[in-house]
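Reopening this one. Same input as before:
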Amino acid sequence: MANPEAERLGREVIARLRAAGHEAMFVGGWVRDRLLGREQDTTGDIATSARPEDVRALFPRTVAVGEQFGVVIVIEGGLPFEVATFRADDAYVDGRRPTSVRFTGAREDAQRRDFTINGMFLDPESGEVLDWVGGREDLERRVVRAIGDPRTRFTEDKLRMIRAVRFAATLGFTIEPETAAAMGAMASEIGVVSRERIGDEIVRILLGGGARRGIELLSATGLLLEVLPEIEAMKGVEQGREHHPEGDVWMHTRLALAGVDRSPLRTEPLALGALLHDVAKPVCAERREGKITFYGHCERGAEIAAEICRRLRRSNAVADRVAWLVENHLRHVNAPNMRVATLKRFLRQEGIEELLELCRIDAEAANGDLTWFEFCRAKLGEFGREEMKPARLVSGGDLIALGYRPGPRFKQILGAVEEAQLEGTIASRDEALALLRDRFPRVD
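Same output, byte for byte:
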């Protein structure tokens, strides 16, 4: 469904352009999603006959993000609207942008866009959809098809190959055969695209509700081998049937991504964690006494996951969280044998909700045994936040006041007091002081 306020403001932008004698319409993905009845979480793009200087003259708040290509951001009611002049593009030499553009009309503008389902215009006054590229028919057929010659479209912007996968995965569409064939033939050229743009598209695939389908399409078109060869390497890596009756690591990872698609907690670290939690199994796989083992794959996987996140230009916070998730995704198995204090420290960690969700997804993608996950969930509810991270009974200042000399010993003393709190053996300041006198006599 459309965002009513964003649509109202977009209509106002269009109305002002038209009042000044220019053509103006909604265009692109916003039109596509409206026709599909999908939730629209962005403002609508607007195409117009107005030149960039005309747009800037009509609106008090604008940002020139690509004026040489006819694109101006108009800020209306605090929301950004991309307003682009109808144009045709000249040659592309960097696989991303045209060397120059010439301003044209709407029909010719439609021909330079990426896919038919994104090449339609909507007149907000009449409700008429202007479709010169067959977009409505492809929506009905649930097909992603390049406009015109797919090799030409992908030569213009190589990232469009991954975008085709994203649209097909998130919309539940297929990729038209000629378009898919061009992607397969040109997959090796994706490396000219910046890693940040590739990373952004990969994350959008993982978070778009079609993560499993997206990874499968990336693999089928040869793009996965180019952008995430570590995932492609999972194919054929056998696992023990006792814990993994589903099959090899590739199958397990795809099932985990399907779990992300169903998860109520769909975050970037969780999605990347599900994709990468077994990323080191191909390099750690061994046969010992007839059994398949993957010793060290959690620790090595954390290193590889961090490298991949950096390669995809994810933020440091995301990279750190993903590496932590990968390293600890089997730690909950030991939870029933942990000391109470250790268990509380484990469950109070920042990111524990993502970690436990990854543990659940991992288990359901394997033999379905949720015993350890359910144990941790129960304990998390039983303990409560205050019990897992109790207020300090003594501080460093207290130790100084009691006559202890500042130094490395302070950390040991305060740690012992907290340990006793977490174990439940002390609960008051007097009990903490008694522990100090008994275990840490003051050295004068």
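So the earlier flakiness isn't reproducible anymore. For the record, The mean pLDDT is 93.
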